[in-house]
Specification:
Layout lengths: L2 E5 L4 H12 L3 E6 L7 H7 L4 E4 L5 H11 L3 E4 L6 H6 L1 H23 L7 E7 L22 H20 L2 E7 L2 E2 L8 H13 L6 E3 L5 E2 L2 E2 H12 L6 E4 L5 E2 H11 L9 E3 L17 H7 L7 H20 L1
This protein binds NADP nicotinamide-adenine-dinucleotide phosphate and ligand G4F.
Ligand G4F binds next to helix 4 and helix 7.
């Protein structure tokens, strides 16, 4: 059986990827941080087959121990401080975990692989946030990077370090430049889930108002379940490489509000939504739209879930979750 190690196992992508790999017959190991991580039961309930190993991306000696314990054929580095707004207030911590943490994982993997650097395949979770002040539309693997947040800068460091380890040591290290992907497992701090949770609560009479920041920002939103499949496909290639994973469609926050409110039968959302500068960012990524042609041609990957279907799925899930809470 192939063996895989996933960092960020408690996150949205970690859970979907673990489910995918277990279904494919892998032995899956998940790295979990902290003494008594409150999300441990979430992982155990969702994917009981996963073996959890304690470790933190800031501790390279601990990571070498994790690699020796898991003995992986494939390493998926999904762990990060991933909330962009938080990264301005915690720029140094974000740099340490989201940036330098990648170097730590690469180095621990290189040491573990020893004389056969390409024998362990490595996936780095790069981000469309690296395109920031976009230099061309749509964005592809060759678009100039111009990050606009401490998170984006940290991801650029991790991205280039992954390429550097591939070129310097011959590691099979690939980087997936993933555009926004969402699901019912998305954290409630991100805009899609914040909206779908609030819409469900408004429909159920549990909340009267939704307070947001920039309604004109645009994102290329896909379904997380589709995107973890692309990660796996990258590591099955004979040669490591970098791939943009996106739908190729962009939508504004206003369109997100249209679909979410329409799902519960509300056509005019204006009376429920208020803008507050508290949720505006010091610098914004205004127009993200990815060109996934390379992933389509080489990996045979394409997104399966459309934007409106995704948002409807999230609203339906939140209606069930919120109803269960008040029952
Ligand atoms: P997420 O839900 O925020 O999960 C982040 C994971 O990182 C959590 O498991 C978290 O563990 C872990 N983590 C945080 N600090 C850590 C540390 N010091 N040591 C070890 N693990 C740590 O993120 P996601 O949406 O699943 O995204 C997965 C990866 O893809 C991230 O690297 C993200 O930056 C990147 N990405 C995401 C998207 C997207 O749209 N979702 C797009 C492009 C790239 P705790 O639960 O213990 O905090
Ligand atoms: O949902 P968001 O917080 O996601 P963001 O910043 O695009 O980052 C996510 O996707 C990245 C890929 O490009 C990942 F790398 C990253 O880890 C994360 O998963 O915000 C999306 C947009 C922004 O333009 C923001 O200004 O929504 C706008 N927005 C408007 N009001 C809001 C809000 N975002 C949040 N979180 N909360 C609001 O109230």
């Amino acid at each position: 059986m192939p063996r895989a190690l996933i960092t960020g196992i408690t996150g949205q992508d970690g859970l979907y990827l673990a489910e995918l790999l277990v279904a494919k017959g892998y032995d899956v190991f998940g790295m979990i941080r902290g003494q008594n991580n409150p999300k441990m039961d979430l992982v155990r309930n969702a994917v009981p087959e996963v073996e959890l190993i304690a470790g933190d991306l800031s501790d390279v000696s601990g990571l070498t121990r994790v690699l020796r314990a898991a003995e992986p054929d494939e390493v998926y580095n999904l762990g990060a401080i991933s909330y962009v707004a938080y990264s301005w207030e915690n720029a140094s911590l974000t740099t340490d975990i989201t940036g330098k943490g990648v170097l730590h994982m690469l180095e621990a993997t290189r040491l573990y692989a020893g004389d056969e650097p390409a024998s362990v395949k490595f996936y780095q979770a790069s981000s469309s946030e690296m395109f920031g002040k976009v230099q061309e539309v749509p964005q592809s693997e060759s678009t100039l990077l111009w990050p606009r947040s401490p998170y984006g800068v940290a991801k650029v460091f991790g991205h280039y370090m992954t390429i550097n380890y591939r070129e310097s040591y011959g590691m099979h290290a690939s980087s997936g430049i993933l555009f926004n992907h969402e699901s019912p497992r998305r954290g409630p701090e991100f805009v899609t889930r914040k909206v779908t949770q609030a819409v469900a609560r408004i429909k159920l009479g549990l909340q009267s108002e939704l307070v947001l920041g920039n309604l004109d920002a645009k994102r290329d939103w896909g379904f997380a379940g589709d995107y973890v499949d692309a990660m796996w496909r990258m590591l099955q290639q004979p040669e490591a490489d970098d791939y943009v994973i996106a739908t190729g469609e962009t939508h504004s926050i206003r369109e997100l509000l249209d679909v979410a409110f329409e799902t519960v039968g509300i056509v005019d959302w204006a009376p429920y939504v208020r803008q507050d500068p508290r949720f505006m960012r010091p610098a914004e990524v205004d127009l993200l739209i990815g060109d996934p042609s390379k992933a389509k041609a080489v990996l045979g990957w394409k997104p399966q879930v459309a934007f409106s279907e995704l948002i409807q799925m999230m609203v339906e899930n939140d209606l069930d979750e919120q109803s269960a809470l008040v029952r």
